[in-house]
């Protein structure tokens, strides 16, 4: 029996009968729904749901998208992504349509059930080791993004992903940004590999740990200035500053909540006159510095120079809800939004 959470007419944003493509809530809800469509595509595959029983199509058809291509992992043949094209009927008059994406490439996160779990778990470990760029799934995703962009050109194109899929979207978006192509990117519950300091309730203790960490990271960065990778990576980090992805995080989700402290601490360090220290610390992690010292190429995927950060302050009863994709199309969210730009 299908889970109600898989059925669009029960769990989806079916109240969005008219999409205002200038409305941030509408844009976020559509992007999240397209990511959910990838999850359900894989569940349809696992459960052998044929065309008449498939539950995935309403997640994109409701918003007048068509599925152009599925992205299949070459290791386990699971569906991890999808390419959608926006094809609204000519009978619908919507003045905001020019701001709609022509194509959206969406990536799902880890599925804990079925035969995809083993492969997804291996990729989670690759992410923790900053090795996601060395996997075949990333290569397939990157090629799909490049090919789609070559077709779309300068017309509107989105990337979207949740959890592990957000990591894939981050990496592909970063690579495109390095070539001067800044794609609109929606990252839902993107993983941040760090101690979950944001879960510490005592603000003074939390701030003290962050300052100490910044001093240590900046000190190691200065000590390694002679290392050939450091200047190149610093220049690459600054070059990414014009790419401003949308990050959607929940403070009760320890997988992504550290982004809150990451950006907030940067601003606080600037306010107390320690901006130059944090400028070094924000683009490095201690683990990656050690890896580089040992001669291993390592670029921390989770560190971003700029972002539009949206925090869901609505209560989450448990981790599953806090990390879930479903929260992002609820109409009653209590959100806090702020843009951070690297200078």
TrEMBL record:
<feature type="domain" description="Fungal lipase-type">
    <location>
        <begin position="143"/>
        <end position="182"/>
    </location>
</feature>
<dbReference type="InterPro" id="IPR029058">
    <property type="entry name" value="AB_hydrolase_fold"/>
</dbReference>
<dbReference type="Pfam" id="PF01764">
    <property type="entry name" value="Lipase_3"/>
</dbReference>
<dbReference type="InterPro" id="IPR002921">
    <property type="entry name" value="Fungal_lipase-type"/>
</dbReference>
<protein>
    <submittedName>
        <fullName>GDSL esterase/lipase</fullName>
    </submittedName>
</protein>
<dbReference type="GO" id="GO:0006629">
    <property type="term" value="P:lipid metabolic process"/>
</dbReference>
């Amino acid at each position: 029996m299908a889970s109600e959470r898989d059925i669009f007419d029960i769990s989806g944003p079916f109240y969005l009968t008219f999409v205002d493509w200038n409305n941030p809530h509408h844009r976020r809800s559509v992007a999240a729904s397209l990511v959910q469509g990838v999850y359900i595509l894989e569940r349809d595959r696992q459960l052998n749901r044929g065309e008449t029983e498939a539950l995935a199509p309403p997640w994109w058809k409701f918003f007048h998208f068509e599925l152009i291509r599925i992205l299949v992992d070459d290791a386990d043949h699971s569906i991890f992504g999808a390419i959608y094209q926006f094809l609204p009927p000519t009978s619908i008059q919507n003045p905001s349509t020019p701001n709609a994406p022509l194509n959206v490439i969406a990536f799902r996160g880890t599925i804990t059930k079925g035969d995809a779990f083993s492969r997804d778990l291996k990729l989670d470990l690759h992410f923790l080791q900053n090795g996601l760029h060395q996997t075949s799934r990333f290569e397939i995703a990157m090629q799909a993004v490049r090919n789609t962009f070559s077709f779309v050109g300068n017309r509107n194109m989105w990337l979207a992903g949740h959890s592990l899929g957000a990591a894939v979207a981050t990496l592909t978006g970063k690579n495109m940004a390095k070539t001067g192509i800044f794609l609109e990117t929606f990252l839902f519950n993107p993983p941040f590999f760090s101690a979950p300091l944001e879960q510490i309730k005592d603000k003074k203790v939390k701030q003290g740990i962050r300052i100490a960490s910044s001093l240590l990271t900046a000190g190691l960065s200065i000590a390694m200035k002679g290392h050939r990778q450091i200047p190149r990576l610093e220049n690459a980090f600054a070059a990414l500053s014009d790419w401003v992805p949308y990050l959607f995080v929940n403070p009760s989700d320890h997988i992504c909540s550290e982004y809150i402290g990451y950006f907030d601490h940067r601003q606080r360090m600037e306010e107390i006159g320690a901006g130059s220290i944090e400028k070094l610390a924000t683009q490095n992690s201690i683990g990656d510095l050690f890896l580089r010292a040992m001669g291993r190429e390592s670029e921390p995927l989770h560190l971003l120079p700029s972002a539009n950060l949206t925090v869901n302050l609505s209560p989450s009863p448990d981790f599953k809800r806090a990390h879930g994709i479903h929260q992002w199309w609820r109409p009653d969210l209590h959100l806090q939004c702020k843009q951070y730009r690297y200078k």
